[in-house]
């Protein structure tokens, strides 16, 4: 997405990965704690604004958002502030 803006615009990511995912290896006996953290996820609720863009035209922002929406498999909706 940042390649679409070419130093003209700014992007703010408003989603933070704050929930650790833990897992124990296979063939480990029961007990002895929860396991080591293997990754992090972010909870995104319906209606939350994950990205903010500024300093680019609406057509460039739409193109960048459609390219970026293929990664998490989500639909995009634009809210334009005046």
From TrEMBL:
InterPro entries: Ribosomal_uL16 (IPR047873), Ribosomal_uL16_bact-type (IPR000114), Ribosomal_uL16_CS (IPR020798), Ribosomal_uL16_dom (IPR016180), Ribosomal_uL16_sf (IPR036920). It is found in: Mitochondrion. GO terms for molecular function: rRNA binding; structural constituent of ribosome. One of its GO terms (cellular component) is mitochondrial large ribosomal subunit. NCBIfam families: rplP_bact. GO terms for biological process: mitochondrial translation. Coiled coil: none annotated. SUPFAM superfamilies: Ribosomal protein L16p/L10e. It comes from Hibiscus trionum. Keywords: Mitochondrion, Ribonucleoprotein, Ribosomal protein. This is Large ribosomal subunit protein uL16m. Pfam families: Ribosomal_L16. It comes from the Eukaryota. The lineage of its organism: Eukaryota, Viridiplantae, Streptophyta, Embryophyta, Tracheophyta. Belongs to the universal ribosomal protein uL16 family.
């Amino acid at each position: 997405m940042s390649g679409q803006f070419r130093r003209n615009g700014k992007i703010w990511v408003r989603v933070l990965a704050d929930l650790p995912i833990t897992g124990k290896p296979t063939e480990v006996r029961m007990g002895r704690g929860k396991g080591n953290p293997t990754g992090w996820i972010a909870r995104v609720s319906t209606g939350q604004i994950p990205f903010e863009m500024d300093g680019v035209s609406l057509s460039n922002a739409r193109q960048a958002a459609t390219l970026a929406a293929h990664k998490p498999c989500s639909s995009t909706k634009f809210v334009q502030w005046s």
